[in-house]
């Protein structure tokens, strides 16, 4: 069973309660601008990674490849930071206000996996 809440930012947030486990599954809505920013960053990183693949296929210098891989890794990390910021600004704030502390635990687990 699910229901919506209106967050402090005026956006509607939807979540479901799993009756069997008591777990809450948030399905928050991001603005088109937020989604576009994340998708643009991912598209650029994918394009950059494709160009690195071509560098390897062409036998380019390993040092050049490593430098470019470092740039992609940085781009992915920055994209992750943006997703995290959006999550904190929206879903986490709403969850804390609603007393849904398991969302904080889920975020902690996700952060642990992201920073490994």
Brief account:
This protein has helices at 32-57, 62-97, 102-114, and strands spanning 2-6, 12-17, 24-28. It is α+β, with helices and mostly antiparallel strands and 116 residues long. It has a single domain (31-114), classed as Methane Monooxygenase Hydroxylase, Chain G, domain 1, CATH 1.20.58.
Description of the structure:
With 116 residues, the protein is α+β, with helices and mostly antiparallel strands. The protein has a single domain, classed as Methane Monooxygenase Hydroxylase, Chain G, domain 1, CATH 1.20.58. The protein is built from 3 helices and 3 strands. A 3-stranded antiparallel sheet has the order 1-2-3, covered by helices on one side. A hairpin with a 6-residue loop joins strand 2 (12-17) and strand 3. Helix 1 (32-57) packs antiparallel against helix 2. It starts with a strand and ends with a helix.
Write the layout of secondary structure elements.
Layout: E1 2-6, E2 12-17, E3 24-28, H1 32-57, H2 62-97, H3 102-114
Helix pairs in contact: 1-2, 2-3
